[in-house]
From TrEMBL, chain A:
Source organism superkingdom: Bacteria
UniProt source species: Prochlorococcus marinus str. MIT 9116
Membrane topology type: Multi-pass membrane protein
Gene Ontology molecular function, alphabetical: NADP binding; oxidoreductase activity; proton-translocating NAD(P)+ transhydrogenase activity
Catalytic activities: NAD(+) + NADPH + H(+)(in) = NADH + NADP(+) + H(+)(out)
Protein name: proton-translocating NAD(P)(+) transhydrogenase
UniProt keyword terms in alphabetical order: Cell inner membrane, Cell membrane, Membrane, NAD, NADP, Oxidoreductase, Translocase, Transmembrane, Transmembrane helix
Pfam family, one: PNTB_4TM
Length: 97, 479
């Protein structure tokens, strides 16, 4: 990929993000934030790439592994916590008259 | 193009599509939970895509597998355990912690590539290409480090481990931060010049900059900071995408960055402050000392829980205004019991949610949802404000600045212009508060002096528990 086309990807991705979200109800501010936060852990792919391409370079393997750990902590924790919150929102109120 | 390349291309495309649908769905109440799962699925799909690509092309060494498994298991395990165990009341600091770790991951990737350049396949040295590479690495380190240290400082402040040091409220902090910023710029240019060791300087000064920028920010501004840091973590991921040449990372990072920016903007609007003033203005208290904001209360009425219960019993419409104090006292369940009793007596109860109540965007909504409050009862500020004149009783629980009439009436107040809940329009206002200490901004609250306001002093949870007892004695909520 040339640098210029990567810049295009960046630009279009940003526009897509702005367009997709638009107006968010306040109830979803926290879940949207923590869900998006989990997605930012996509850096795990970069960490994986690093490990695969390390070719036996142990320090690099360790850096990659630690980076992967941090990213997955972000991803797994982020999605679980978001799901926990959203489960509360969808719970049927038990005492509705 | 050979088969693995095509497969990876298709999977990446699918992952981007699903991530986009996930983010879109997260902004609608009905679809949010499925959308979150869809996004999680898209993420796992992208991992499968990447691994199968390497399996099909260069292959993955056993050694690499070992390190992949170690990193994955440890990271996922800690993430899952924390996500399951953490109480809902500590959600702001949890989100900040996750966020910081995402930043750390980008930082480490860039650092790894910088110290041990990966063989990219193209052997011919291209000056332009290596320049871009250096720039992406620097940006990734810079943003990643700021995200990490900034989030950790935010978390520590939210946990109460760290208070705002006095010197950070003086002009000195601007000087210090400018020094850090210039130092990171120098390190950046030095790095481009081919001096690899300056990468460590960049790591150190950008980490310090993250601390220096976040430390002076007061608690009331936390929602802005948290959503801004969330946006940074997206930018860091996008920068890492440039480092390892991955479109998927760039798109996903850009979308997260955009989502964070939108939330940041919503939060700033809720406080009527610009992003610049939140980031560089320090906490509001520093500005308020000189203004007329501070002053003595002259007309405080305090009342007992019993009087409060009597007034509530006679009401037709009650509005609850929750704030950070409710989260601190962990009184959401007790509050729910009180409102249940009132509802059983046919009293209409709604909750007025200020956009920046609490310490993160949507904090009160999460807190009250945990206590089983149906979200239809949570009303946004603009919706609920016209209702106050027709309201009998307002219960203010742990909120302060968001109900300060100064924001409307006193042009010399630092709060002036901030949209607030017009609780003083109601017939009776009860403010449940531990003592007469000022709110987070340190500004006097004119509401407390009004004749229709009564203070009920005590810890929110204890007062609410007493209130339940009093209501029981009055026969409220018994069928």
């Amino acid at each position: 990929m040339s640098f210029i086309s990567l810049l295009w990807v960046l630009l279009l991705g940003s526009l897509l993000g702005l367009e997709l979200i638009g107006k968010v109800p306040p109830t979803l501010h926290t879940p949207l934030m923590s869900g998006a936060n989990a997605i930012s852990g996509i850096t795990m792919l970069a960490a994986l790439t690093l490990i695969v391409k390390a070719e036996g370079n142990v320090p690099l393997l360790i850096i990659g592994s630690v980076s992967l750990g941090f990213a997955l902590f972000n991803v797994v924790g982020g999605f679980f916590v978001t799901d926990r919150m959203l489960a509360m929102f969808s719970r049927k109120p038990s005492n509705k008259k | 193009m050979n088969l693995p390349v095509i497969i990876k291309f298709v999977i990446d495309l699918l992952a981007v599509l699903l991530l986009a649908l996930g983010i879109k769905g997260l902004s609608k109440v009905k679809s949010a939970r499925d959308a979150n799962r869809l996004a999680a699925f898209a993420m796992s799909l992208s991992v499968v895509g990447l691994l199968s690509y390497y399996l099909g092309t260069s292959g993955i060494a056993i050694q690499s597998w070992i390190w992949i498994i170690i990193g994955s298991i440890i990271g996922s395990l800690f993430g899952a355990v924390l996500a399951k165990k953490v109480p809902m009341t500590s959600m702001p600091e949890t989100v900040a912690l996750f966020n910081g770790c995402g930043g750390m991951s980008s930082l480490l990737v860039a650092l790894g590539v910088a110290i041990f350049p990966i063989s990219s396949g193209q052997e011919n040295f291209d000056f332009f290409k290596s320049l871009i590479n250096e720039v992406s690495i620097s940006v990734s380190i810079f943003v990643g480090a700021i995200t990490f240290t900034g989030s950790i400082v935010a978390m520590a402040k939210l946990q109460g481990w760290l208070s705002t040091p006095g010197w950070t409220q003086s002009k000195v902090r601007h000087f210090v931060n400018i020094v850090f910023a210039i130092a990171s710029l120098i390190a950046f240019f030095d790095l481009i010049n081919g001096n690899t060791s300056s990468i460590w300087l960049l790591v150190i000064v950008s980490s310090l900059l993250g601390i220096g920028v976040t430390l002076p920010i007061g608690g009331a501004d936390m929602p802005v900071v948290i959503s801004l840091l969330n946006s940074y973590s997206g930018i860091a991921a996008a920068a890492a995408g440039f480092v390892v040449d991955s479109q998927l990372l760039i798109v996903a990072g850009a979308m997260v960055g955009a989502a964070g920016l939108i939330l940041t903007q919503v939060m700033c609007k809720g406080m009527n402050r610009s992003l610049v003033s939140v980031l560089f203005g320090g906490s509001l208290s520093a500005q308020s000392t000189a203004s007329s904001g501070s002053g003595e209360y002259t007309n405080i009425t305090s009342c007992s829980v019993e009087e409060c219960a009597l007034t509530l019993e006679a009401a037709n419409k009650v509005i609850i205004v929750p704030g950070y104090g409710l989260a601190v006292a962990q009184a959401q369940h007790t509050l729910r019991e009180v409102t249940k009793k009132l509802e059983q007596n046919g009293i209409e109860v709604v909750y007025a949610i200020h956009p920046v109540a609490g310490r993160m965007p949507g904090h009160m909504n999460v807190l009250l949802a945990e206590a089983d409050v149906p979200y239809e009862q949570l009303k946004e500020m603009d919706v609920v404000n016209p209702d106050f004149p027709a309201t009998d009783v307002v219960l203010v629980l742990g909120a302060n600045d968001v109900v300060n009439p100064q924001a409307k009436n006193d042009s010399s107040s630092p709060l002036y212009g901030m949209p607030v809940l017009d609780v003083q329009e109601a017939r009776t206002v009860f403010v449940i508060k531990r003592g007469m200490s000022a709110g987070y901004s340190g500004i006097k609250n004119d509401l407390f002096d009004l004749p229709n306001t009564s203070m009920v002093f005590g810890d929110a949870k204890k007062v609410l528990n007493d209130l339940i007892g009093e209501l029981k004695d009055l026969g409220v909520g018994e069928k």
